[in-house]
Amino acid sequence: MINSPATSVTWEHWLDGDPDTASGGEPPWLETQRRDAIVRVRRQGIPTSREEGWRYTSLKALAGQRFARRDRTAIGVSSRDIEPVLVPGLDAHRVVLVNGIFMPSLSVLDGLPDGVRVGSLREMLDSTPDILAGRLNRLAGAGGRLFSALNTAAMDDGFVLMLDRAVEVACPIEIVHLALGGDEPRLAQPRHLVVLEDGARATLIERYLSIGEPLYCTNSVLELTLERNAVLEHHRVQTESPNAFHLTGLYLSQAQSSHYVGHTLGLGAAWSRTDLMVRFAGQHAECDLKGLYLAGDRQLVDFHLDVDHQVPRCASREAFKGIVYGKGRAVFDGRIHVARDAQQTDAQLSNKNLLLSRAAEVDTKPQLEIFADDVKCSHGTTVGEIDPQAIFYLRSRGIPEAKARRMLCLGFAHEIIDGLRPKPLREYVAKEVSRRLDDVALSHEAERRN
Predict the structure, then answer these.
(1) 43, 178, 292, 433: which sits with the fewest CB atoms below 10 Å from its CB?
(2) What burial letters (b/e) apply to 328-352, b meaning 16+ CB within 10 Å?
(3) How far is Cα 119 from Cα 383, in angstroms, rounded to an integer?
(4) pTM for this one?
(5) Where are the alpha helices (DSSP H) in 45-136?
(6) How far, CA to CA in Å, does 151 sit from each of 141, 147, 154, 157, 194?
């Protein structure tokens, strides 16, 4: 789609990076990638509902915003400021980014084993760019995804995590993405790169959150490469401001016999979209994706999965659950592609949703595209209400209706929550979900009165 002049103006301020990056001095390969991304953005314009990937999600609210460029000098936050948002009892190495900028003064990286490289993307581009050449944008650069191209064009900072061959990190590595408000709505476009070489093992925790309820936008891109026999357990928890916009593009490439376990929870933001792209590059690799999303009044939550089986004898599991209440909206679009040569593929896709009000809406579309003949694949989706007999059973035992509904919702969600590790993270997420489900009871009572 060729953009109109109005469309071009809409994204132009997204292409303005930090003044430090705009002044040049970057490696030639990155400058080339930025130029190519800008060309793609200006050619593509704004996706509309006529495009399959945006059929159920309007960009009108996002495109109507005018976000300000980041200002490094405006970032003033101390360790005391972030204490209230930390996970109680979580023993982890910690990386903190504020408005997309890596903050070494707030990060805690002592005690990492030899063979682990973790730090600021900007600093590595300045000091050791050759390490990133051929890796940065290798996965996200392909295809025509608009917001990944916008990120490439204007990315300034982010985190890089690289594990050498056979290195194992015992404690989780936590990435805290903290958003602060300002005089104007801000746009952050952080870029992250994770590479686990042969046999490396790690647990990565990402949390996206804010202090207060500011209006801003996070457009994050994460590229994950797992080489032979590498194992990564990856938990992502998004609890951003109820006025925020959130976009994530996660690109995963798995080599032979690698294993990825990913949990993604979308609980916050007024408007959020998460794209998960998985590519199998070697046989006997396994990918286990699970997700939970909640959408209440004035919330849109959008998940898109694209799992591509190009080689034989790989397995993927995708199980996502949603709870939608009030006037909330959720979109789930899951696609599994099995190429002709990907024999003995084992792929399962499931999406289950609870609708807790008449005004709630879910659009779900699981897809299987199978071109091989020796496979074991399935997909399914459900959209329904809480079983009235279950409510009646609990009420007959003296449990108030509001509490009964909340208990049943928590039971529905815990299939996903229980897979989170370590225990402090699991307890933290359970409390966050429980707190948000308190709104369900209020929403239900208001609906009954109306």
Answers:
(1) 43
(2) bbbbbbbbbbbbeebeebebbbbbb
(3) 43
(4) 0.94
(5) 60-63, 79-82, 121-127, 129-132
(6) 10, 6, 5, 11, 17
Backbone CA torsion sign across 390, 391, 392, 393: positive
Q: Is 416 helix (H, G, I), strand (E, B) or coil?
A: helix
Q: How far apart are CA 368 and CA 432, in angstroms?
A: 33
Half-sphere exposure of 190 (CA within 13 A, CB side): 29
Instruction: Give CA–CA dist 223/192, Å, rounded.
Output: 6
Coil, helix or strand at residue 340: coil
| Residue reference for tokens 């990402």 | 206
What is the C-alpha separation between 81 and 76, in angstroms, rounded? 10
pLDDT by residue, tens only, the chain of 450 residues: 334 334 445 687 788 654 444 445 789 999 999 999 999 998 887 888 888 889 999 998 998 888 986 655 456 788 888 999 999 999 999 999 999 999 999 999 999 999 999 999 999 999 999 999 999 999 998 767 899 999 999 998 999 999 999 999 999 999 999 999 877 899 999 999 999 999 999 999 999 999 999 999 999 999 999 999 999 999 999 999 999 999 999 999 999 999 999 999 999 999 999 999 999 999 999 999 999 999 999 899 999 999 999 999 999 999 999 999 999 999 999 999 999 999 999 999 999 999 999 999 999 999 999 999 999 999 999 999 999 999 989 999 999 888 898 899 999 999 999 999 999 999 999 999 999 988 666 555 555 666
